[in-house]
Design brief:
This protein has about 150 residues and is an alpha/beta fold. It has one domain: 2,3-Dihydroxybiphenyl 1,2-Dioxygenase, domain 1, CATH 3.10.180.10. Helix content is about 20%, strand content about 30%. The radius of gyration is 17 Å and the shape is elongated. The protein starts with 7 loop residues before the first strand and ends in a 10-residue tail after the last helix.
Length: about 150
């Protein structure tokens, strides 16, 4: 496995979350370890993203791992996911499956088209498809601010 950073996302019902993430966002289940019936929060799932990468899905197994649904929707992070194309169609499917679209699809100054959605438990997801190459100089001109970036010409 070559993924260097793998987000671990906590759900009240991790098994249901994997089904929903597959249907709404296009993730594919790659591993399932079911927790014992008396401790479903001990379950562990892994899913592949629509354009690569992976995420881990688990339950509320300690007081430090809770779903946003348990803390009034508060998020301490969000997950940014690349999709191979068809971002508007991806958004339409997510909406149809019950995602709350909090930022409609829009072109960004850095060359991606993005939208932002909340899943049924309140996790914030940003989806992006690359639509054009933008130089750092062009991006700086578009936003009117300098950009410090090691790998952006």
């Amino acid at each position: 496995m070559t993924d260097a950073i793998i987000p671990a996302i906590t759900y009240r019902d991790p098994r249901a979350a994997t089904r929903w993430l597959a249907e709404a966002f296009g993730f594919q289940l790659t591993m399932a370890i079911e927790g014992p019936p008396e401790q479903p929060a001990a379950s562990h799932y892994e899913m592949a993203g629509p354009a690569g990468g992976r995420i881990m899905i688990g339950g509320e197994w300690s007081t430090r791992t809770v779903s946003p649904a348990g803390v009034r929707g508060v998020n301490t992070q969000s997950v940014h996911v690349r999709v191979p194309g068809g971002l508007d169609e991806h958004c339409a499917i997510a909406r149809e499956k019950g995602a709350e679209i909090v930022a409609e699809p829009a072109d960004q100054f850095f060359g991606d088209r993005t939208y932002r959605a909340l899943d049924p438990e309140g996790h914030c997801w940003t989806f992006a498809a690359h639509i054009r190459d933008v130089s750092r100089a062009e991006a700086e001109q578009l936003i009117g601010m300098p950009i410090a970036a090691r790998d952006w010409e």
